[in-house]
Design brief:
Layout lengths: L4 E4 L2 E4 L2 E9 L5 E2 L6 E5 L2 E4 L3 E4 L2 E4 L6 E5 L2 E9 L5 E3 L2 E3 L7 E11 L3 E8 L4 E2 L16 E3 L12 E3 L4 E6 L4 E5 L7 E12 L15 E2 L8 E10 L2 E12 L3 E10 L3 E3 L6 E3 L4 E6 L1
Antiparallel strand pairs: 1-2, 3-10, 3-20, 4-5, 5-6, 6-12, 7-8, 7-11, 9-10, 11-27, 12-27, 13-14, 13-15, 13-17, 14-18, 16-22, 18-19, 19-20, 20-21, 22-23, 23-24, 24-27, 25-26
Length: 292
């Protein structure tokens, strides 16, 4: 990211933060869960877990006070994430749970992926023959402090051949090739799921005012509607010591930097999240990383 040292001698501008606005539309009105400041009920058993930590050049730091900022209108909630100034990269680490209802049987799951020029979809689909058994227990150990991952299959657009024991239904992700929008759905229940939209990104100064809004190189993007994204199918990976199916997509922002999003569908239960702020996930739960 090329930070703004913009303006002229009479009105210099210096970028200190990046604000990313992301809206989430659910089947019902989004409500904050009592007792958990950054857990939001999206309706129909689906929830999003937010952190106030971001990883900046390899170090976890808290966002400024009041962030993530939340505003709600009807069934759409907009979250504003404020990333502090960084040299190489900044990363944010939210989680979506409950898209696939828990299943009382143990089912063999095979992650499959389909892609075309305009969109990418990844689904963890149940195998043909469920067999009775207890759910996979969540591990008790502390997760790794950063979301490092290990590929367990070479990146490929073809279905992964491995099978993972898992207690869950199905979860699908459809990513649009343009617009910065993706859908998290339960393929077994039509109409059940959520829509996540990257609304805008703005570089701001220490007071929160947008900088670099004029001139040949602008440091803000007020809509992703015409923004092109490229995809990478990463296959099966291990992240936070858990098996997951992964798709990444990224886009160049106004020629000053890159926004990349990694989406994961977990194939087993465990703990994920930043240090000292972790959540339990089950098979079929989905998380995404936002990277600048």
């Amino acid at each position: 990211w090329s930070w703004c040292g913009c303006g002229n001698r009479n009105s210099p501008e210096t970028g200190e933060f990046i604000d990313l606005m992301v809206s989430v539309k659910a089947t019902g009105n989004i409500q904050k869960k009592s007792g958990k400041d950054r857990t939001f009920d999206l309706g129909d058993g689906v929830a999003v877990e937010l952190s106030n930590q971001t990883q900046v050049d390899g170090v976890w730091k808290e966002m400024p006070a009041g962030y993530p900022m939340v505003s709600t209108q009807g069934s759409t909630t907009t979250f504003t994430f404020r990333f502090p100034k960084f040299n190489d990269y900044a990363l944010y680490d939210p989680v979506i749970t409950g898209v696939s209802p828990a299943d009382p049987t143990t089912t063999v799951l095979v992650p499959t992926t389909t892609m075309d020029a305009g969109s990418a979809t990844t689904t963890v689909a149940s195998g043909p023959t469920p067999t009775p058994g207890p759910p996979t227990p969540a591990p008790t150990e502390t997760p790794t402090p950063a979301p490092t991952e290990t590929p367990t299959s070479a990146p490929t657009p073809t279905p992964a051949s491995g099978q993972t024991q898992c207690s869950s239904g199905s979860t699908g992700i459809q990513i649009l090739g343009r617009s910065g929008k993706f859908f998290v759905v339960d393929p077994t229940t039509p109409g059940r799921g959520i829509q996540v939209t990257m609304d805008a990104v703005r570089e701001v100064d220490a007071s929160g005012s947008a900088v670099g809004t004029s001139g040949q190189v602008q440091h803000s993007l007020n809509t992703f509607a015409a923004q092109d994204f490229t995809f990478t199918q990463n296959g099966s990976v291990t992240v936070y010591n858990l098996s997951a199916s992964k798709i990444s997509f990224e886009s160049n922002i106004a020629g000053v930097g890159t926004l990349a999003v990694d989406t994961y569908i977990f194939q087993e239960a465990g703990l994920v999240g930043p240090p000292n702020e972790t959540w339990s996930v089950g098979c079929g739960d989905m998380k995404w990383n936002i990277n600048f």
